[in-house]
């Protein structure tokens, strides 16, 4: 499969960076402090801003303090945060004005996680505090495309969670899903689903970008 695009808009957690262990520890600590079931929280939090998840769990008057508490826990725990397979090579082939990141995390946290994982921080980073409505609302992806000076319909969104896929599609963009945090069956609404980014290739052309997905041979080796 090939996408002829002007730019690529990436999610971060679960798409470029594996922070699963840290996320589970942090939410576990937070849930214990609030006498909540961490398993239920982990079921609903992927792809959503902390404040949007907490809004489903706590009364309104408790939310601001709880959000600040959770962010402190996040910034204090960067252990086991690593780049996901294929992410570093894919970003290395992209001009800086041809990609952006749209995340449900805070700007400070995402810059920290990208740094620990050894990945570049994009020139355009739309974080939780930059939008009034988080994923699955399309606001973030529309804002990122506009900041790059591109039509969002000519941008490929790369996501790992159903909320993010819904956001990209609502923005009018084609969406590639990576099955790094969810079973592929939960991502079938995307235009294409891949195990991770190792089978993906980017070619820069005079008119934009060609994003292609290689076939996978036996044993997991990608082939043209």
Q: How would you portray this structure in words?
A:
Helix content is 35%, strand content 20%. Residues 216-224 have low confidence and may be disordered. It has eight helices and 13 strands. It has a six-stranded parallel β-sheet. It has a three-stranded antiparallel β-sheet with strand order 1-11-10, with no helix packed on it. The protein has a two-stranded antiparallel ribbon with strand order 3-4. The chain is an alpha/beta fold and 224 residues long. It has two domains: 2-18 and 81-223, HAD superfamily/HAD-like (Rossmann fold, 3-Layer(aba) Sandwich), CATH 3.40.50; 20-76.
Briefly summarize what is shown.
With 224 residues, this protein is of the alpha/beta class. The chain has helices spanning 20-33, 38-45, 50-55, 63-76, 87-92, 107-116, 139-148, 162-171, and strands spanning 2-5, 7-10, 17-18, 82-83, 99-102, 125-126, 155-159, 175-178, 192-194, 200-204, 209-213, 215-216, 222-223. The chain is globular, with a radius of gyration of 17 Å.
């Amino acid at each position: 499969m090939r996408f002829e695009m002007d730019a690529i808009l990436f999610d971060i957690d679960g798409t470029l960076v594996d922070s699963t262990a840290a996320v589970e520890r942090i939410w576990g600590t937070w849930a214990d402090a609030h006498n909540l079931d961490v398993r239920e929280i982990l079921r609903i939090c992927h792809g959503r801003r902390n404040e949007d998840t907490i809004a489903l769990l706590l009364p309104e008057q408790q939310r601001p303090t709880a959000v600040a508490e959770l962010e402190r826990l996040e910034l204090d725990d960067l252990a086991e945060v690593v780049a996901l397979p294929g992410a570093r090579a894919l970003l290395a082939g992209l001009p800086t004005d041809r990609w952006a990141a749209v995340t449900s995390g805070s700007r400070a946290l995402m810059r920290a996680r990208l740094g620990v994982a050894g990945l570049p921080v994009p020139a355009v980073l739309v974080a939780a505090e930059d939008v009034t409505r988080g994923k699955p609302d399309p606001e973030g992806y529309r804002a990122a495309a506009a900041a790059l000076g591109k039509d969002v319909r000519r941008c490929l969104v790369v996501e790992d969670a159903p909320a993010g896929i819904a956001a990209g599609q609502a923005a009018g963009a084609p969406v590639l899903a990576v099955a790094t945090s969810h079973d592929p069956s939960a991502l079938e609404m995307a235009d294409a689903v891949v195990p991770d980014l190792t089978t993906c290739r980017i070619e820069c052309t005079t008119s934009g970008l060609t994003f292609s997905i290689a076939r996978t041979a036996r044993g997991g080796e990608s082939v043209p």
